Every structure is written in structure tokens, then in C-alpha cells.
């Protein structure tokens, strides 16, 4: 399904600015039997809206296919970085919104419940998760986090209101995954009262462009938000950005507090910086694409050279980001011997598109010579673990960092 109008403002003034070719769904990993079947791929392209500055995917895979087909594999509890991050978030939001044990906090896109548990531990509040992936919601429920298995949509409103109006509606990395961002915000009208606050985190468009973070683009990641279009979007729902913070999570994200009150002065400052960086003109993306192609050429050259010398190459971290990188660079098991990951949901499966077998971290023994670290935000932590290897590659802002 190709977008012909802007998802936020309805304008038809859309221009294709990013094109990463065709990709399978990035966070569904394959079993051996899937390798004998056709694999669907979709165009991974983004367009810029000349009217409101929204950047979003042109082609949308139906949400049901994205989350309820093959089991969804990302769980927050897999990542120590996520757990630490969510504990800090819960602390900050509880303080800002003065959350007490009388309050209800809900999480739209609650995953395995890691964040809600942190809210409950900080304040004693009641918690309720909403997540469309049945296998992940099951994990949350087993862990004591009540969870509605559904998308955050009008249908869940009566279920939530059986408890009470929530003090905090939280959402991390969900608004950017929503097929219909306006539909995602619609339930807020019924769920929020004067004191309620909608707090959400999304990767930040400015960092995406400046860090050449093309590997954070994938079919499930529908929208790439700058502050300018977000402000307009929220205002159309009667919400003001009362606080905004930048965090280094996911190569740079923004945490937005939307509710009733005065606008945070940082909002206009951030929009000015975005305008100066050219985020709302096509030129910035043409330069972005030049850098992306440079990364592909230099990474492939380094890996092919190593392979030609008979080196054994492992990739580390079968994350969604990694799959975009592997598929865009057309790297497969002819170049990369295997990939490692800590998630039990991924071990023994194959990466989508590139069909590389996933093993546990134990496989990184002396028989491996070269490692390609896929989640670049984890490179610092992984480098230490991999000191015994000859060479480590990681994609960076301008090309490839290597330890050679
Ligand atoms: Zn627009």
C-alpha cells in the first residue's frame, strides 16, 4: 500500500527522499523450513511532506502482517541497555507527573512489560500494558504485568476505563511504528483528563540524518519524527508539548510530554536547529543517500577483502537494524559465516532476507577472525568482549570504523 497523502496533515505534496531498495520484514526471524518458501520483500523508501515536514515510509506493510504473522522477536528484557534506560524513564516521569499508588499508568506498545514494572516499583501505581504481539504479551502476563493483546486503538478504551483514567499514558517506540499516527492518538481524547499526560519516545529525525542512521530504517518503523511536524500533530489533538528532552537512546531519541500547560521553550529552539540543518528540504536527504552508498561500498570492500584472505567472519547482534544493513549491503551467508545473539527467541533461526544462521554468543571463539557489530549503539560494550579477534567492524556516521 503506497501512501499518496501525508499521514499527519493529508497533503499530497510528498517527495521521495530516501530509497534503500527492497527488504523483507526486519524483525521476524525465519525457521529452516521457511527457507524453502518464497519470501516477500517490500520497497523501503521514505517521503518528505512539503507541507508539514513529516518523513515517513511510502510503502506500508499491513500492521497485522508486521506483528501477528511470524512471531515477533524483540523483547526489552533482552537488553541491559533497555532495562537501565526504562528505570531512568520511570523515575523521571513519576517525578514530573507526581505519580502515586492511587494512579494508573498504561503503556501503549508495552512489549514484555519491562517499563511498566519499573513504574510500579518506583511509585506503587497500578499498571496496564497494551501490545499487539500475542507471544510477547504472554511473557508480560506471565511476569505479572496485566496486558491487553491489541493495538493501541479505540477498541481498548472501554477496557482501560473499567479501571480508571490513567495519570500517565506512556509509549516508547510505538508512535513511530504506528501505521496511522492520527489513529494511534485518537484514544487519548477519551483516556486523558486535565491532569493526564501522554509521554512518548521516538527516534529523532535530526540524529537519524546527522548520524547517517539508515540502519534504523525498516518496514516496521513507519515514521521518522522531527519536532516541527510533531508539534502540529499534537496541537491538532489539543495537546501542548509541555516538556521535551533529548536522550541518546537508539542513536538519539526525543522524549515528549504532551498535555495541558505552557509549551516548553526548547520546542521552538529545536525547530530552529532542525530548519538550519535542512531537515525539511530534499537536499539534506540527497547528501544523506550519498553517505549511505559510501557506507555500503566501504563495508562490502572490507568484508570481501577479509573473506578473500580466508578469514572467518561473524556478525554480532541479530537486531532489526542489523537486518536493514545486511539486506541493503546484500551481505549473506556467503560472506558472513553466522550471526550471534543473546535472545532465546532468535537462536537457531535465520535472519530475514540474508538467511544467516543465528548462534549464541558462545560461538565467538578463537575460530572467528573478524566481527561485524550490527547494533552500533552497543559497539562500546561489545568491543571489550571481542578483543581476541583480529578485526572488528562497525558502521559509523561517515563510513566504517575498524580496529585494523
Ligand atoms: Zn504533512
Brief description of this entry?
The protein is α/β, with parallel strands linked by helices and 404 residues long.
Write a structural description.
The chain contains 13 helices and 17 strands. The chain has 404 residues and is an alpha/beta fold. It folds into three domains: 14-67, no CATH class; 76-282, Rossmann fold, CATH 3.40.50.150; 299-402, Rossmann fold (3-Layer(aba) Sandwich). Strands 6-5-4-7-8-11-10 form a seven-stranded mixed beta sheet, with helices on both faces. The chain has a six-stranded mixed beta sheet with strand order 14-13-12-15-16-17, with helices on both faces. Strands 1-2-3-9 form a four-stranded antiparallel beta sheet. The radius of gyration is 21 Å and the shape is globular. The chain starts with 13 loop residues before the first strand and ends with a strand. It binds zinc ion. Zinc ion binds at residues 6, 8-9, 11, 49, 51-52, 54.
How would you sum up the major sheet?
Answer: 7 strands, mixed
Oligomer: single chain
Amount of beta strand: 15-25%
Which molecules are bound in this entry? zinc ion
Please give the count of helices: 13
| CATH architecture assignment of the largest domain | 3-Layer(aba) Sandwich
Uncertain stretches = none
End-to-end distance, in Å? 44 Å
The name CATH uses for the topology of the largest domain is Rossmann fold
Mean pLDDT over the residues: 90
Domains, number: 3
Spatial shape = globular
Amino acid at each position: 500500500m503506497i501512501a499518496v497523502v501525508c499521514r499527519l496533515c493529508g497533503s499530497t505534496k510528498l517527495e521521495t527522499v530516501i530509497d534503500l531498495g527492497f527488504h523483507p520484514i526486519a524483525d521476524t526471524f525465519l525457521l529452516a523450513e521457511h527457507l524453502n518458501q518464497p519470501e516477500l520483500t517490500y520497497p523501503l523508501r521514505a517521503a518528505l511532506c512539503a507541507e508539514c515536514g513529516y518523513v515517513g515510509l511510502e510503502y506500508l506493510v499491513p500492521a497485522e502482517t508486521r506483528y501477528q504473522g511470524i512471531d515477533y522477536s524483540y523483547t526489552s528484557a533482552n537488553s541491559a541497555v533497555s532495562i537501565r534506560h526504562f528505570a531512568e524513564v520511570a523515575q523521571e516521569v513519576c517525578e514530573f507527573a507526581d505519580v502515586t499508588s492511587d494512579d494508573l499508568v498504561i503503556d501503549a506498545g508495552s512489549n514484555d512489560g519491562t517499563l511498566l514494572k519499573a513504574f510500579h516499583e518506583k511509585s506503587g501505581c497500578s499498571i496496564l500494558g497494551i501490545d499487539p504481539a500475542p507471544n510477547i504479551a504472554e511473557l508480560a502476563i506471565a511476569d505479572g504485568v496485566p496486558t491487553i493483546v491489541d493495538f493501541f486503538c479505540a477498541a481498548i478504551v472501554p477496557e482501560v476505563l473499567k479501571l480508571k483514567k490513567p495519570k500517565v499514558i506512556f509509549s516508547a517506540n510505538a508512535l513511530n511504528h504506528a501505521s496511522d499516527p492520527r489513529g494511534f492518538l485518537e484514544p487519548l481524547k477519551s483516556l486523558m483528563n486535565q491532569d493526564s499526560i501522554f509521554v512518548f519516545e521516538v527516534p529523532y529525525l535530526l540524529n537519524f540524518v546527522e548520524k547517517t542512521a539508515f540502519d534504523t530504517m525498516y518496514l516496521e518503523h513507519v515514521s521518522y519524527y522531527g519536532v516541527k511536524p510533531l508539534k502540529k500533530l499534537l496541537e491538532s489533538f489539543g495537546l501542548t508539548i509541555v516538556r521535551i528532552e533529548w536522550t541518546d537512546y537508539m542513536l538519539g531519541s526525543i522524549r515528549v510530554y504532551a498535555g495541558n500547560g505552557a509549551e516548553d521553550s526548547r520546542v521552538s529552539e529545536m525547530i530552529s536547529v532542525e530548519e538550519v540543518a535542512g531537515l525539511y528540504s530534499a537536499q539534506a536527504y540527497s547528501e544523506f543517500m550519498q553517505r549511505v552508498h559510501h557506507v555500503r561500498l566501504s563495508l562490502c570492500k572490507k568484508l570481501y577483502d577479509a573473506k578473500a584472505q580466508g578469514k572467518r567472519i561473524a556478525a554480532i547482534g541479530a537486531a532489526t537494524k542489523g537486518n536493514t544493513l545486511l539486506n541493503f549491503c546484500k551481505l549473506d551467508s556467503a560472506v558472513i559465516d553466522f550471526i550471534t545473539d543473546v535472545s532465546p527467541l532468535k537462536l537457531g533461526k535465520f535472519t530475514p532476507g540474508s538467511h544467516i544462521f543465528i548462534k549464541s554468543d558462545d560461538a565467538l571463539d578463537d575460530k572467528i577472525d573478524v566481527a561485524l557489530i550490527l547494533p552500533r549503539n552497543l559497539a562500546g560494550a561489545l568491543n571489550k568482549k571481542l578483543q581476541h579477534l583480529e578485526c572488528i567492524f562497525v558502521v559509523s556516521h561517515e563510513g566504517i570504523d575498524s580496529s585494523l
